[in-house]
Design brief:
With about 280 residues, the protein is an alpha/beta fold. It is built from eleven helices and eight strands. It folds into two domains: about 160 residues, Rossmann fold (3-Layer(aba) Sandwich); about 110 residues, N-(1-d-carboxylethyl)-l-norvaline Dehydrogenase, domain 2.
Length: about 280
Amino acid sequence: MTDSLTIAVIASGDMGAAVGRRLAERGAQVLTSLEGRSDASRARATAAGMADADEAAIAAADMILSIVPPADALALAQRLAPALAAAPSKPLYVDCNAVSPATVMRIAEAVAQTGTPFVDAGIIGNPPKPQGYTPVIYASGPDAGRFAALNALGLDIRVMDGAVGQASALKMCYAGLTKGLHAVGVSVMLGALEAGVAVPLLDEVAASQPELLAYFTARTPGVFAKAYRWVAEMQEIGAFLGGGGAVLYDGAARQFERLAADHAGQRADEAALLEVLRRSDGV
């Protein structure tokens, strides 16, 4: 039964902790690894009902959900590989990270060498909310149906009719569209601020593209705080697309680096941009 499952969710960032909370609320035992984690991560894990566990206990779980920054996804699989190889009963390893199909194949290879079954998954949406919103998780690979058993614990897992790499490809395309639009919008608006034409620009967008203005007004305030997490994701998207796409998303990665530095207090663009957006929204 699903309510007797032991599920390891690594790590306890915003998404991982929210997924862990959802599973724990529905009766699963949820483990995580807090070694080297910040006080904020530890607090999120505790609030979510996630128990700290060593690598042997994690490898003994029924499933392992890897939910880490893209740059850490392969390293996590490699770090857990010895424990997975030693585990007499193998868990289902589900990589839920925003990585390219090429990267997910490298992760799958590291896991496969331990005899552990693997699922490619891509999360589309924000972290689950208690008793409310649930993001969609697309899954591919021959064992994706086993992962979909967690739908009974409140997740929304949609199995794709394809091999490992398909879910990651979909994630790359979707994130390239949405987060790429954030990069374009913020870049243009910062350029307008520097040129002193931000107000007439937003007035014109309000008149001719009101849906676009509504999108940027609603979404841009949250971009700066998340920008540091999106740098490696843009690089993964660029590697997936190749050619002109690689150039485009390399630029997006550098722009998100700039926004992350701004949010850390090294620049003053964030406050100026949010102020002009508030004015355009009549606030």
